């Protein structure tokens, strides 16, 4: 499979580190001109995106996660998660889609979600809710944008061993408790997420629209609390 994004303009949010940076580098290597964008408030973000001009490919990657139980959750925590994880993605997607439609072009959008939008885990109810929301937003955008030749899909990574997660899974016992529930028996590499995103943005995925694509080694198919092996 030879993916070629030459002459394509790609925009990636949250590309300063981790998965976002890996995605941006991958798209650049495949020939795209990549803009890494930090999201701000609604109007400032719109101005930045409009200044970029033509965008063919969009990856909504920017997100936050704060670990609080349902009983500890505050209004501020909810607002913070939905502002970054959902509202910003809708805002940017709206601008990019309008641009593609106005020039009668075509394009693709990938929203970086999480298996936490499909499965729940203790300690992050608001994060999980925001990712479930982004998955529904993906389906809504796919339905509305499809007639305009814009595909929209979610990429739902499982346990990716980013520098942030290295701190979360700080002991071998914690790491084993996670990988034990993954049929493939290991963490996901950032490059595996980036490769999936590149595929979903490419013409090889020309009839994949409105899909939620887990990159999780089979984590979502294992509902037992016990390890696979």
Automatic annotation (TrEMBL):
GO biological processes: glucose metabolic process; xylulose metabolic process
Cross-referenced PROSITE patterns: ADH_SHORT
Example of a GO MF term: L-xylulose reductase (NADPH) activity
Keyword Amino-acid biosynthesis found: no
Keyword list, A-Z: NADP, Oxidoreductase
Quaternary organization: Homotetramer.
Family: Belongs to the short-chain dehydrogenases/reductases (SDR) family.
Name this protein carries in UniProt: L-xylulose reductase
Lineage: Eukaryota, Metazoa, Spiralia, Lophotrochozoa, Mollusca
């Amino acid at each position: 499979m030879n993916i070629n994004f030459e002459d394509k303009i790609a925009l990636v949010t949250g590309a300063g580190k981790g998965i976002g940076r890996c995605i941006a580098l991958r798209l650049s290597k495949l020939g795209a001109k990549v803009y890494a964008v930090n999201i701000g408030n609604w109007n400032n973000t719109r101005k930045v995106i409009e200044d970029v001009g033509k965008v063919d490919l969009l990856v909504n990657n920017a997100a936050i996660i704060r670990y609080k139980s349902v009983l500890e959750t505050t209004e501020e925590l909810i607002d913070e998660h939905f502002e970054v994880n959902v509202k910003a993605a809708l805002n940017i997607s709206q601008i990019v889609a309008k641009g593609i439609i106005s020039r009668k072009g075509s394009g693709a959008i990938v929203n970086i979600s999480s298996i936490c939008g499909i499965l729940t885990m203790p300690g992050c109810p608001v994060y999980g809710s925001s990712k479930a929301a982004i998955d529904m937003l993906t389906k809504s955008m796919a339905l509305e944008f499809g007639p305009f030749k814009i595909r929209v899909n979610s990429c739902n990574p499982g346990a990716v061993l980013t520098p942030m997660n290295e701190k979360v899974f700080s002991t071998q016992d914690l790491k084993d408790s996670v990988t034990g529930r993954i049929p493939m028996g290991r963490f996901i590499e950032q490059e595996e997420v980036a490769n999936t995103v590149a595929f979903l943005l490419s013409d090889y995925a020309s009839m994949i629209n409105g899909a939620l694509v887990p990159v999780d080694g089979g984590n979502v198919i294992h509902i037992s609390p016990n390890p696979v092996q």
